[in-house]
Amino acid sequence: MTDKEQLWQETVEAFNHYRLLRNKFFQQTTPEERIRIIIPVFGWGSYREITLEVAKTLTPEELKQFCGSLLSISTHINANFETARELLFQIPSDWLAQNVEVYTQPILETADAEQYQMLLGIYRSISQELELNLLQWGTNHNDFEIRTLAQDILAEMDK
Question: Is the separation of the CB atoms in 130 and 97 below 8 Å?
Fold first, then answer.
């Protein structure tokens, strides 16, 4: 067996071992225990993929507890932002519409134009009113790029 074939074999064995441990974790914990275990590390660094995988097993009601983290992950182009968005939109839409702005505030404090644009897309998917609120907020932003982006989009909407 070549070195590369050996490496492949080790990869398959590691993956199978991971699946075995993951299944054992799911069998031996309740959803409440899983939430308690993953909340402190949800979405951070090397925990991101595995915590998002665990989150896929949660109910829409349980996902509410992760709204802020899901929003944060969804505003950065990375390997997991689509998964985070999918999970975010599993949260009941009426609850999301009523609460998303609270969870967005900390993100907006340090957001760049790219994050702002990602948030606009999320808001647009939730409601036009929320999108308009975020655009109005953006027109008064100190960051030139955010301000210009908001003004340009609003001008395009007025056409």
Answer: yes
Structure-token match 């993951």, residue found: 22
Q: Which of 91, 106, 123 delimits the end of a domain?
A: 91
4 and 67 share one domain: yes
Q: Is 79 helix (H, G, I), strand (E, B) or coil?
A: coil
Domain residues for 80?
1-91
Is residue 42 classed as helix, strand or coil in its secondary structure? coil
Is it the case that residue 45 has pLDDT exceeding 90?
no
User: Does residue 126 share a domain with residue 56?
Assistant: no
Same domain, 9 and 75: yes
Cα 14 versus chain centre, distance: 27
Structural domains of the chain, count: 2
> How far is it, in rounded angstroms, from Cα 130 to Cα 65?
21
As given in the structure block, the two tokens for residue 17 are 């071992």
pLDDT at 140: 93
pTM, to two decimals: 0.86
Yes or no: say if 84 and 70 are a contact pair by the CB < 8 Å rule.
yes
Which CA distances in Å does 10 have to 18, 59, 147? Answer: 12, 35, 51
Same domain, 43 and 120: no
